[in-house]
Amino acid sequence: MMRLPKFVYHAPTSVDEAGRILAGEGTAARVVAGGTDLYPNMKRGHQLPPVLVSLRRIPKITGISGTPETGLRIGACTSLTQLGSHPAVKSGYAALASAVLSISTPILRNMGTIGGNLCLDTRCNYYNQNYEWRRAIHFCMKCDGSICWVAPSSKTCLAINSSDTAPLLAALGGRARLISTRGERELAIKDLYNLDGIDYLNKRPDEILTEILLPPAGGWIASYRKLRRRGSFDFPVLGVAAVLWKEPDGRIRDAKIYLNAVASAPLEAKEAETCLVGRKLDTETIREAARLAAEMAKPVDNADFGIAWRKRMARVFTERALNDLKE
Amino acid sequence: MTNGKQKILLALRVNGEVREFACYPNRTLLEVLREDLGLTGTKHGCELGECGTCTILIDNQPILSCLILALECEGREIVTVEGLSPGPGLHPLQEAFGELGAAQCGYCTPGILCTAKALLDRNRRPSRAEIRAALAGNLCRCTGYIKIFEAVELAAERMERPSE
Amino acid sequence: MSQKPYRIVGHSLAKVDGPAKCTGQTKFADDLFLPGMVHAKLHRAPLPHARIVRVDTSEAEKMPGVVAVLTGKELPIPFGILPVSQDEHALCLDRIRFVGDPVAAVAALEEDIAFAAMNRIRVEYEPLKAVMSIQAALDNPEPRIHDYGEEGNIHKKVALEFGDVRHGFAGADEIFVDTFYYEGSTHLALEQHAVVAAPEPDGRLTVWSSTQTPHYVHRALAKVLELPPAYIRVIATPVGGGFGGKSDPFQHEIVAAKLALKIGRPVKICLTREEVFYCHRGRHPVLMSVKTGVKKDGSITAMHFRSVLDGGGYGSYGVASTYYTGALQTVTYRIPHYKFDGVRVFTNKPPCGPKRGHGTPQPRFALEVHLDKIAGHLGLDPAEMRRSQLVPPNSITANHLRIGSMGLGTCIDKVVGGSGWKKKFRRLPRGRGVGIACSSYISGAGLPIYWNRMPHTGVQIKLDRGGGICVFCGQIDIGQGSDSVLAQMVAEILGVDPLTIRLVTGDTDLTPVDLGSYSSRVTLMMGNAAIQAAERARDLVARAVAKQWKLSPSRIVFAAGRVFDTENPDQGMSFAESVQAAEAEFGTIGTVGSYTPPPSPGKYRGAGVGPSPAYSYSAAIAQVEVDPDTGWTQVERIWIAHDCGKCINPMLVTGQVEGSVYMGLGEALMEEQVFRANRNGVHKIPSMLDYKSPTTEDMCEVTTYLIEDPDPNGPFGAKEAGQGPLLPIAPAIANAVFDAVGVRIDEIPITPEKILRALRSPDRRCGPASYPRIPMPEPIRVPLPGTEA
Ligand SMILES: Cc1cc2nc3c(=O)[nH]c(=O)nc-3n(C[C@H](O)[C@H](O)[C@H](O)COP(=O)(O)OP(=O)(O)OC[C@H]3O[C@@H](n4cnc5c(N)ncnc54)[C@H](O)[C@@H]3O)c2cc1C
Ligand code: FES
Ligand code: FES
What we know:
Chain A has helices at about 15-25, 40-45, 80-85, 85-90, 95-100, 105-110, 115-120, 130-135, 165-170, 270-275, 285-295, 305-325, and strands at about 10, 30, 50-55, 65, 70-75, 175-180, 185-190, 210-215, 220-225, 240-245, 250-260, 265-270. By secondary structure, chain A is an alpha+beta fold. In chain C, the strands form 9 sheets. Chain C has a 7-stranded mixed β-sheet. Chain C has a 7-stranded mixed β-sheet with strand order 32-8-13-14-15-7-34. Classes of the chains: A alpha+beta, B alpha+beta, C alpha+beta. Chains B and C meet through helix 2, helix 3, helix 4 and helix 5 of B and helix 1 and helix 17 of C. One FE2/S2 (inorganic) cluster sits at the interface of chains B and C.
C-alpha cells in the first residue's frame, strides 16, 4: 500500500494563525486543503514537506457569497462539488460550473477545493510516478534530478498546468486574494502563473490563497472545452476557455481565449483574441481565430495522446468553444 | 499541532460507534480503518485517488479514504460498507447487488455501495444518466457497470415502496 | 440426464457469495491480519537487462524494524507455469530481464519500514543491451535474454500445415493478404496481488494468496522450497479480479513463503499498483499476417495465418499463447486447408501471458477484420457471408478439433435482427456505422498444463444428518460466479436450496484438486465432477429411502428440500431424514466426482493446444459514431449473442457477457501496456489514472442475447461464458468504424489519432506496413481428418 511519509501537522482555525505558522516554518511548510493533489504527490515521494498546514479548519475561507449581479467571492476552501452545484454559479457562471464538474470524479470533487485546483502542481508523466520509477530514469529536473526528459535540451521544466478552472478564471478576469504575515494582495488569476514547470506559481510559499473574486455576470458569454481520454477521472490534455464581450449588434468588443495543458501556465491566445475583436462570430472568423490560437499550442510528449493530434485538437476545440458562443 | 514523530490519540465515529486509537498523523483513514480498527471491508486499488475502490462515507458524502488523514475526520460521521445497514439485515442496495449479480469479484463493491447510498439518500429515483454520473468515480473491472446500474435502480424502487 | 424442467439450474438465483461481498465480510488476501505478522517488499530492478554483479543488503539489514532480508542465493531453483519454461527465479540470481524483475526482499515490522529498507538495498549491475520490440528481438540475436528457446531471442517457433494450402490457394477465385497489429494490454484487476504465508511450528506452511491457480502455486512452492507438497497448504482467497493475471505462480508468493519459514512468523506481501503492472502476464502484443483464398461466394479455400508475439522477459504461458494465436481460426468458418506459423520472441519487458481470451483475441481481430474486407471486395454482406460459411456442428476441423454444439448461426441471426443490421449497414449517414464480428472460445483446455493422466478437477460431497451439504472443490471464484454455479448444480440434483450448501474451495489441504480458474474450464469441468459426486450421493440416499419404503430407487425424487415417491408424492420425508436413513444404511455419506476431458482426435505435435470438450460461440454488432474532425469514436451500443450451451444461471452469464464487452471495449479503444524503450524500458504509464480503464461514462449500451445450444459434453449442456464474448468486440468496432468513415484501423487500440491519420492518408488505413521476414522451419504436415493413412 502506498503510504504517506511522516510530517508535522497543523490545523489552524484562522488565516492569521495559518499565516503565522507558515511564516515561522519557512519553506519547510506547505499548505494543504483537500489534499487530492498533494497527498498522492507525497505518497509518490515527489513532494515531501515536513510540515503541513491544513486550511480545513478555517471556516472563513469556505463558501460562496455575492450574487451574479455584483460578482462572487469564492472561499478558496470551497469544495468543487459545492462550487459546481451552487445556484449562483450555475445561473451566472454556467461555463465555470461545467468546467468544475469536468474535474476528476464526483468523489474527488467532494474533497478537492477551488484553491487547490488553482494551485495544482504542474504535471508530467515523467514526474507523476513512484519513487522507484523515477529512480529508474535517474529522476528529472522537477524533482531529485537535473534533466527534462521530455525535452533534454530544455533549460526549464515543461510540466503542464492541468487545472480545469485556471484557463476559464483567467479568461473571465477572476482575481485571487493572497494573504501572508507580510500583508495582503490581489492578483489577476492570469498573472498567478509562471511559464515554468517548477516555479509555476507567482506566489510565495507563505502566501495563502484565501478567496477568488469573480466579476459580475452578464455582458459576457463563456465556454470551456476539455479534451481527455475518458468521461471521468482524467486531467485535461487540452483545455480551451473562451470568453466574449459583445456589442449589441453582435460584434465582439473584447475576447479572451486561454489554452491549458499545453504549457506550464494557461496560455493566452492573444492573436486569436485580436482577430476576433470588432468582428461578428461567423464561421470564417471562428476558423481564423482557432487557427491562430492553435499556433500557440506546442504540446510536448508528457501527457496522454500524441502531440501532433493534441496540437490539431487545439484548433478543433477552440473552434468548438467559439461555436458554443454563437447566438 | 502534532509532532510527526509522535502518535496522537484520536476518537473517530465509525458506523455509529466511537472508536479510540493512537496513530501517527500521516495515517490515512483507509489505513486506520483496515489496520487499526479491523474494518477490512473497505478495499484499496491504488491508494492515489485513481480508482474509487476505497470510497467510504463521511457525513453521508462519498470520500476516498486513501486521500484523507484519519485526524481530518474527527468529529465527523464515518460510514463504511460494514455499517451501511443500520440494523442486522441488509441495506436494499446490498440486497439488490447480490440478487442482480452487480458484485462479481466484489472488490469494487464496498466503494460502489457507499457512493450509491449517498446518491439514493439525496435523490430517491435517479435516472440512469444520474446513476452513471454519480458512479463515474468508481472503477469496476468485472461487470461493465450495467448490473450495477440495474441494482441501484432496483434498490431505489424498493426503497420507495418498502412494503415489498 | 433428466428432461424435466430444472428447478435451480437455469434460474437467475442470487449469487451465493453476494451477501458476504456486499457487506465487506469476504476476506481477500490483503484482509488477513495474523498475530505477529510482518510485511515484506521486493526490491525490483530499475533497468531492463543486466547482469547482477553484487547485491548489498547491509544498509537495509541495519534499519530498525527490519527482521530479514532475502536474496536469490537462498532460492536457487527455477520455476514457471509451463514445464517447458521453468525460467523464472523467485529472486533473480545473476541476470535481470525487465524493469521490475525482483532481486531481493526485505521483511519488516511495518510496511513502510519494509518500503524504506527495500530502497536501501544496493545492487550493482552490468547493463546489457535491451531488446524492446518484436523487430529488435528479431534483429538482435545477441545478447540472448535466455539461453534456451529456438535461437537468438526467439523463444518459440511453430509451423503447422493441415492439408495442402498450396492446393487450396490454387482453387481460389481471389487471394487476400492483410497485416494487423494488436497492442498489449493488462488485466488491471482492482485487487492488487497479495499473499500471506504462515509457518507452523512443525515445519509446515500455509499460504493464502489471491491466485486463480492454487494447485500450480502449490507445485511451484514445493519445487522451489524443496518441501514435500504435503507440508504446504495453499488457500486461494477470493480473487478480487483475475482475468488471467493471477494464473502464474508468482515471485512474491514464493518469497513470502520462504521468509515465513526463515523467520518463523507470518509474512504478508501486497503489491503496489505499479508492481502489478510489472507482474503483468497480460495480452501479448502480436503482429499478424493473414492470407486467405476465397471463392466468389466468400467460401474459404485455404488460409495461411502468421503471428509473431512479443513475449516479454520470461516464458510464462507463452508457448501455449503462441499456439493459441493459430488454433481457433478453424472453429467458426470452414477452412479446408490451413497453415499456421507462430513465433514468440523474448523482449526486456514484463512477461506476457494469459489475459481473458488467452492468445485468441489478437488473431480473432485480424481474422474478422480481414473477412470484413473480403466481404467488401466481393460485394457480399459480411453477416451473410459469415453465416454461409459456418463450421457444422459435430464435425472435426482441419486442425483436428472436435466441434460439438455450434450455435453461431443463431447468434448471428439474433444480433442481425436485434440491431436492425439490414437497415443500417452501409446505410447510416456518414460518421455513423455498424460492424459485425464473430468468435469462439474453448470451454476448458483439453489437456492439463503438465502432462498427466489424472482428472482435471474433483468434487467431494459430504452429507450431514442435519440436512447440510458440504461441497469441497479446488476451484476458486474469481468473480465469474463459480461458487454459485457449483452450489446450483449440486442443489439441483439433491433437490435443496443452494443456500443450504456450504462450499469449501481452493484449499490444497481440504479440497480435491481443480486445476484453476483459467481457460474457461470451471463450469464445464467442475460442473461435470459435481454432477457425478452429487448423483452418487443422491443414489445412496435414494437407495436407503427406497429400501425403507420398499420401492424401487428409481421412484425416489429429490425436490424442494424433500425426498418423495414420484408415484405417490404424499409419501415423503425431509432431506435431513433421508440422509439419516442413508447414514443408518451405509454409514457416513461422502461421495466424490471427477472429470477428465475426452481425448482429442489430434495426434500431431502441438495438438495439445486448441482441443476442448466444447466451444462457445458469440456474434456481436457494434454501432459507432465517429467524429471526422477529431477521429473520436463513440461506441453507442453493442448487440451480442452468446451461445453458452445452457445457462446454469442466466444472470451470471449475462454478467460475464457484459463484463467481456467492457473489457473488449477498453482494449479496442484505449488500453495500452507500453514501455519507454529510450528511457531504460520503464512502463510508460503504470497507474490507474494513466492506464485507461473505461469508466461508467465510457461504457456503451449492451444488448445481450443468450443462446442455448446444449453440448453433450457440458454439465446440463453448459459451455463457457467468461472469455469468448470479449473476442468479437474489437473487430466489430473496427468494422463499424469502417462503415462509419471508410477507414481501416488494422491496429488495436483504435484511437482517435489513428482514425484521423487514416482519414488523411491515401490508403485510408492505419496499421502495420508489413510482416517481418522470419525464416521458419518446414511445417509439420498434418493430413486432414479422415484422410490419414
Ligand atoms: C485521479 C485524479 C484526477 C484528477 N483530475 C483532475 C482534473 O481533471 N482536473 C483538475 O483540474 N484537477 C484534477 N485533479 C487534481 C485535484 O484533485 C484538483 O485539482 C483539486 O481541486 C485540488 O484541490 P485540493 O484542495 O485537493 O488541493 P491540495 O492537494 O490540498 O493542494 C494542491 C496544491 O495547492 C496548494 N494549495 C491548496 N490550497 C491552497 C491555498 N488556499 N492557498 C495556497 N496554496 C494552496 C497546496 O499546497 C498544494 O500544493 C485530479 C486528482 C486526482 C487524484
Ligand atoms: S484506493 Fe484507489 S482511490 Fe483510493
Ligand atoms: S465486481 Fe470486480 S471490480 Fe467490480
